[in-house]
Amino acid sequence: MPPTSTGQQEPATDHQDGAENGRAKQRANEAQEPKEKIEGKVYKDYLKLDSLLNNVDMMSFRHGNPVHDEHLFIITHQTYELWFRQIIWELDSVRAILNVPIVSEEDMLTILQRMNRTASIWKTAVEQFAILETMTPLDFMEFRCYLAPGSGFQSLQFRIIENKMGQKMENRVNANSIIESFRDEDSQRQLRQSLEEPSLCDLLIKWLERTPGLEEKGFNFPARYTEAVNKYLANERENMEMETDPEKRKGLEAEVKKQRDTFASVLDEKSYNEKIRLKERRLSYKAFMGALMVNCYSETPRFHLPQQLLTILMDIDSLVTKWRYNHVILVQRMLGSKTGTGGTSGYMYLRSTVSDRYKVFLDLFNVSSFIIPRDYIPELTIEMQSALHSTRLSGTTLGYRMHRFSEPSLKPLSF
Amino acid sequence: MPPTSTGQQEPATDHQDGAENGRAKQRANEAQEPKEKIEGKVYKDYLKLDSLLNNVDMMSFRHGNPVHDEHLFIITHQTYELWFRQIIWELDSVRAILNVPIVSEEDMLTILQRMNRTASIWKTAVEQFAILETMTPLDFMEFRCYLAPGSGFQSLQFRIIENKMGQKMENRVNANSIIESFRDEDSQRQLRQSLEEPSLCDLLIKWLERTPGLEEKGFNFPARYTEAVNKYLANERENMEMETDPEKRKGLEAEVKKQRDTFASVLDEKSYNEKIRLKERRLSYKAFMGALMVNCYSETPRFHLPQQLLTILMDIDSLVTKWRYNHVILVQRMLGSKTGTGGTSGYMYLRSTVSDRYKVFLDLFNVSSFIIPRDYIPELTIEMQSALHSTRLSGTTLGYRMHRFSEPSLKPLSF
Amino acid sequence: MPPTSTGQQEPATDHQDGAENGRAKQRANEAQEPKEKIEGKVYKDYLKLDSLLNNVDMMSFRHGNPVHDEHLFIITHQTYELWFRQIIWELDSVRAILNVPIVSEEDMLTILQRMNRTASIWKTAVEQFAILETMTPLDFMEFRCYLAPGSGFQSLQFRIIENKMGQKMENRVNANSIIESFRDEDSQRQLRQSLEEPSLCDLLIKWLERTPGLEEKGFNFPARYTEAVNKYLANERENMEMETDPEKRKGLEAEVKKQRDTFASVLDEKSYNEKIRLKERRLSYKAFMGALMVNCYSETPRFHLPQQLLTILMDIDSLVTKWRYNHVILVQRMLGSKTGTGGTSGYMYLRSTVSDRYKVFLDLFNVSSFIIPRDYIPELTIEMQSALHSTRLSGTTLGYRMHRFSEPSLKPLSF
Amino acid sequence: MPPTSTGQQEPATDHQDGAENGRAKQRANEAQEPKEKIEGKVYKDYLKLDSLLNNVDMMSFRHGNPVHDEHLFIITHQTYELWFRQIIWELDSVRAILNVPIVSEEDMLTILQRMNRTASIWKTAVEQFAILETMTPLDFMEFRCYLAPGSGFQSLQFRIIENKMGQKMENRVNANSIIESFRDEDSQRQLRQSLEEPSLCDLLIKWLERTPGLEEKGFNFPARYTEAVNKYLANERENMEMETDPEKRKGLEAEVKKQRDTFASVLDEKSYNEKIRLKERRLSYKAFMGALMVNCYSETPRFHLPQQLLTILMDIDSLVTKWRYNHVILVQRMLGSKTGTGGTSGYMYLRSTVSDRYKVFLDLFNVSSFIIPRDYIPELTIEMQSALHSTRLSGTTLGYRMHRFSEPSLKPLSF
Q1: In C242-321, at which residue ranges do the beta strands (DSSP E only) sit?
Q2: Residue D269, number of CB atoms within 10 A of its CB
Q3: The predicted structure's pLDDT at residue B184
Q4: Which of D62, D71, D153 sits opposite C86 (nearest CB)?
Q5: Are the C-beta atoms of B131 and A121 separated by less than 8 Å?
Q6: In this structure, what are the phi and psi dihedrals at residue D129, rounded to the nearest 5 degrees?
Q7: What is residue C118's three-state secondary structure?
Q8: H-type helices in D133-220, by residue range?
Q9: How many Cβ atoms from other residues are within 10 Å of residue A163's Cβ?
């Protein structure tokens, strides 16, 4: 089996079949294989504890100056790396499932479960900084001298996670030194590969572009939304004009103008594309419209799961930012403005990564700027409604509704 | 170097010198050793990531039925085992520092730092159950069949932690099966050894017995405390007798009687020892008096650190109980009342461990029953006060107090 | 407007219309009402801060013995009561939405959002105990004497929450003293009313009984499930009989027997009802079958939301148990085994509430005992599948699936 | 009684006596007052629940368009305001205790307990954002229109906390609009008063300036530290010069130069004062030296409590920053870049407050830049050591050390 991105051998994964949930396939495989007797294992052999727990090699001991806290330093980083491995496992799986022409609702459930898990891991990763904070700067200084040229900057798995999420190289503060910091060929190869594969963000964009209802010849959400926004802005202007107090009116005028400018940037595809060019937006116009549509109709059952996906992606973005922030705080406390062990600029570099440019899904946060009140959101056509919505049918007096064959079908949509 | 309790090779630790903080010694060692050039390592070599991350061997893949979530199951358990290793590292160090005739205040600071760290690890361990809870019973059932005869019951490090904390075999629900569950000689040897060494609880008892102020010929805290309790109870009785409302009086009478009975169990050494015989108490009489004294005077600077130690030990007891509880909930959700993978009785067994009998430091919680209001706590004698207390000296009008050579010395106490 | 359950005036709520999402209705109401000018408010008037923040009346001050920490004691309890008010608000709304013959998927989304919110509040409530734990037993003892006859036992809102969740009086350790502990008529009236209204558990049972697929003349899940279990048990028996090692075989025999007994209790309605009579089960047979079915098919989109509801209810049950446990620990640390301020037995009483009998949704946890491996779960019939499932239709080559009028309709089910 | 800073009536507090722990005084007061019979209260009267819970006045109801989630919005803000009241209570108490010429170790214990409590409250405040995040942008938009001109920007208590901590007006992004945003005289008065009183940061500076060991004619830490740094830098330079690899040497040279520049800014009082003038430092030179000294000797018992105080202040700074960050994220999700309800610029304004300039105790974080390895830290003189340190005395072979009258006294230092 070929080595995988994390450097260790691992079996081919079930999700390489993409949208196929893989389970049926697995069972088929199982049937074909001759069932040889595979011995069960006791706990410590199953988890390979003899090997796992045997990787603490304290430099301070090697230098004849044993420092108690170096043990903590190593173990903490090792737990992070184990969790990073798990995050990559989930990301690979989710990207494979998304990387198909159609994503069914079952697949969406699987994706959501795995992204929620990823968020849960990040939450633990954020909070477990408290453990390392029990070390003092004086403790750290005792073994810090032995750590060079090592640096957390060299965590390959962390870089790979960033890349697989969709962190753009061009948004990085020091893109060049990242690739350079990995000297061995294998690491560099894995890093490059993670940049070449479609990232979660790339796949999300394609998926959002397929949002049902965007088609010009169908529901044409962009057109209806434009109309709705114009109605809303006109109403705001009317309210403004009815204001008699001159000072308040001045405030409202500014507000109305600001809103008009804000909305202009999404109502017109060209203006929007200009923002992409200026790197102020990353989602394509169509994808952005998809995200907007999902937000507008998130309370209809069919748009609920998509909305959950957008939400969990923002959650993860926030959690990663919090992780970076906690990391910054820790480094600031341990080192102040001293140079980092690997020669990195330490605090100042890390501080610069706690910013919006390191948020992969920043555009999703921005969608909120363009949501209009429920009353203005264009009503779904009967056709769309029947597709997306569980309408209240007559004749559903029993405990639950029976389907009837002659009715317009209300297929669950998958997109 | 000999294999240690956790099965992996590791260097002799600094704390084997006991109370010696070890740092001076370390520097001496360093001086003696010829300083050969030791090469620094990059991040992945320092953390031995190639070895660390290469321990995921999914049984479902071996059986030709790959199950995505088994990866999570393995990684989660591995992070637990890494943290357990760290907890053992801290426990060993703290026990060595405590295992001396005198524990200085500097040593107490080190102990507190390390026990706080241990609590912080347990906190993460409690909370990271949320990650494993993202797996469903159906997911688990897909690979559960491959896990037998493995069982979390077989975590050697967890047993060793329990033993080193001071979990008594006789308090265990199924003491016999625990030793049996480890089939290899090395594990059994480590387990036995962890039972033979003085546990944290044993050492705590000895340390509490040395609490300054307990001596009969000195401050004689037990005698003064007895007197104080009697005054307090007499006052309560007086208040009761002044009550004219018959119903209220009845309530107060019962209350006074109950208090009298409660206090009787600690005022008389024989009654107390009877409770030890009945396994209702674990601390010796003298140690219990020490704990009581620390609680009574915790607001004097010299008793502050000892009080912090008692508090953090209760915190850890509570956290371990919460860990057990979360474990129980998880098993209940995954398995209901099904038999555990290693043939254990699963939920019912685990449920039985979430009880007070599994609290090592239960007696410390009980101390609160015997605390009396501040006004009744016996005043420190001038001698004790000068030893324990920063009294407000005359002539300390400057920004801080200067010491004067002719005064009674106010040495920091170490015990 | 009449006073509500929490003693304060509050407006009629939107959810009193039950399943009607209420929004359309609201807008209609709005249209009818004359729109008089309502003045906006600044922050402090909107939140009524002058009134809200003016409710700290420290008894220790009244007694001329001001104790700093009583302020914390009051504020902490007040924040709990505010959150309890919010929990009641959510519970009332969710019960109203559930208390109808049919619950649509939109309604289910609303229910889930509000129960998730409730869980989130409980999470904060569990964790904020850490704040009160910064008070020491000595601090508490300074003002505790002034608190009688008050007691947390008298929190009306907490009792109402228990009742509205469905905590049965007969499962309470001291049901009588609970009603007695509220002396004023209004509190007693509210308490009784909360017992008379259908609880969340009552409504859940009715809802589960309506699970589509339970009908004898339709999919008849109970029959199919029985068949599946028998096949599964037969297979287990076969495996057992193939085992040649006598000792292992003995273990497997015991295991097979135990499984047979376990399953017997649900396969036969009479045996199950006997368990209800013995108070070992609370859900009706039909409701239990519904819960089992939801679990079995939770990976189909239509059963996903129902499964999420069952999960969040278990989460809340666990969180309330953790809240009780943290409360117990706090009381144990503050009081030891002293009598509680309201004359309650303090620690021992509270300890008794941290048990399975105080779990309202205990049966949902038990469902896991009866889940069988995915391979044995009865396949959905084409009819059920088309109702519940997004099947992979031919002709769905575009980015998402178009509905066709002539097909069997795939209506989203609401139940 | 006069209204206090938070607008509500409250009793004079015990800490207005400053360093006097107040307890003795309280008892005296108690003795003097005639003990009239004060009736105990039941729970709901003690907590004034009828008044407390009666402050929910939903604007959406007033406008005839009831929105379920407005209830959550109000309750959440109310719990924040209750906690803010508690934080002010603790801050006032701690500032009073610090605002004296000498702070004893007992007082330091009280300060630490209360600042730890404050940190614990902030932790809950940070985490309970999760509750409000269960509201969607669409939900919020339904009642947001009714909220103007209210804005969280108008939280008086939050501003008062910032001021009492020591947030400088000149560091605020929009200092002017803050005072303007409170229209009523009383709020403005309170705000001004909070700016005039000595802040926690002011008092910390004075306290640090009194650090024992700074005196020129005594231990003269600054001089010894300067010497130590020079020795350390000389050693670093030597190591650099021994490096033969030209590239590595170049790196080391840059590193040495950078260190030299860094240290220059604290070794010379004038350079340091220049940094104050440029607003890059806030602590006075002497206070900074005090903080540095506390850090260097934090492992001696006497400097342990001071170090704990510095640490908890940094913790609080970090927590407040996290609170701001969570607030930003919430606003970003709810509003995008829309204008805030009170006319504030919403997201962009809030984003600007999540920066180092809003950290009151930033200089404490910077101290780490100037810590040198343990081996270089100047040894305490015998005189200092006997004052600060529990030296290992001969003749202390018993379980704990007895004081002897003829020895140099080892008084606990208070500063």
Answers
A1: none
A2: 14
A3: 86
A4: D71
A5: yes
A6: -60, -30
A7: helix
A8: 137-144, 156-165, 175-180, 185-196, 200-209
A9: 24
Find the range with the poorest average confidence among A233-247, B178-192, B383-397, D202-216.
B383-397
**A286 contacts A206 by C-beta, under 8 angstroms:** no
Residue A68 burial (CB count, 10 A): 25
Please report, for residues A283, B257, C106, the alpha-carbon distance to residue A294 in angstroms, rounded to integers and kept in the order given. 14, 68, 15
- Measured distance CA(D26)–CA(D14) in Å, rounded: 7
Identify all chain A residues contacting C210, using CB atoms and an 8 Å cutoff: 399-400
ipTM of the complex: 0.86
What six digits make up the tokens of C345? 């037995």
Domain boundaries, chain C: 63-214+292-403
- A3 forms beta bridges with A9
CA distance from start to end of chain B: 34
If phi > 0 it is left, if psi is from -120 to 50 it is alpha, else beta; for residue B364 that is: alpha
Q: Mind listing the pLDDT tens digit of every residue in chain C (415 residues)? A: 333 344 343 444 434 444 334 444 444 444 444 455 677 888 999 999 999 999 999 999 999 999 999 999 999 999 999 999 999 999 999 999 999 888 888 899 999 999 999 999 999 999 999 999 999 999 998 998 888 777 777 899 999 999 999 998 777 766 677 777 788 889 999 999 999 999 999 999 999 999 989 988 889 999 999 999 999 999 999 988 988 888 888 888 888 898 898 899 899 999 999 999 998 899 999 999 999 999 999 988 888 899 999 999 999 999 999 999 999 888 888 887 665 555 555 676 777 777 777 889 999 998 988 999 989 999 888 777 665 543 333 222 222 222 222 233 333 333 4
Nearest to B286 by CA among B209, B374, B171: B209
d(CA C69, CA C77): 13
**Residue D271: count of CB within 10 angstroms of its CB:** 12
> Bridge-partner residues for D369, per DSSP?
none
d(Cα A226, Cα A238) in Å, to the nearest integer?
A: 18
Alpha-carbon distance A332 to A325, whole Å? Answer: 10
Reported as a single tens digit per residue, the pLDDT across B123-138 is 999 999 999 999 999 9
Taking an 8 Å cut-off on Cβ atoms, the answer to whether B141 and C337 are in contact is no
CB distance B337–C366 less than 8 Å? yes
* 8 Å CB contact of B138 and C371: yes
What does the block give as tokens for C294?
A: 């939801």
Q: Which pLDDT score is estimated for C36?
A: 59
Cβ atoms of residues C43 and D78 within 8 Å: no
Report yes or no: C30 and D62 within 8 Å, Cβ to Cβ. no
Give the A window 138-157 contacts with B, CB below 8 Å.
Answer: 146-156
* C-alpha–C-alpha distance, residues C256 and C234, integer Å: 9
- Mean of the pLDDT values across residues D157-167? 95
CA-based nearest residue to B236, from C337, D41, C338: C338
How far does Cα D197 stand from its chain's mean position?
A: 16
Cis before C149 (ω within 30): yes
Summarize pLDDT for A79-90 with one digit per residue, the tens: 999 999 999 999
Q: Give the residue from B363, A182, D378, D258 showing the smallest Cα distance to C337.
A: B363
> Which chain C residues contact residue A109 at CB under 8 A?
299, 301, 304
Statement: residue D150 has pLDDT above 80 = no
> Do the Cβ atoms of C75 and D85 come within 8 Å?
yes
Is residue B408 within 8 Å of B386, Cβ to Cβ?
yes
Q: Tokens in use for B330? A: 């998880």
CATH topology of domain B63-214+292-403: Methane Monooxygenase Hydroxylase; Chain G, domain 1 (1.20.58)
What SS3 string covers A148-178?
CCCCHHHCHHHHHHHHHHCCCHHHCCCHHHH
Residue B55: both structure tokens together: 């321990």
Coil, helix or strand at residue C268: coil
**Calpha distance D13→C68 (Å, rounded):** 7
Tell me, what amino acid is at C409?
Answer: S
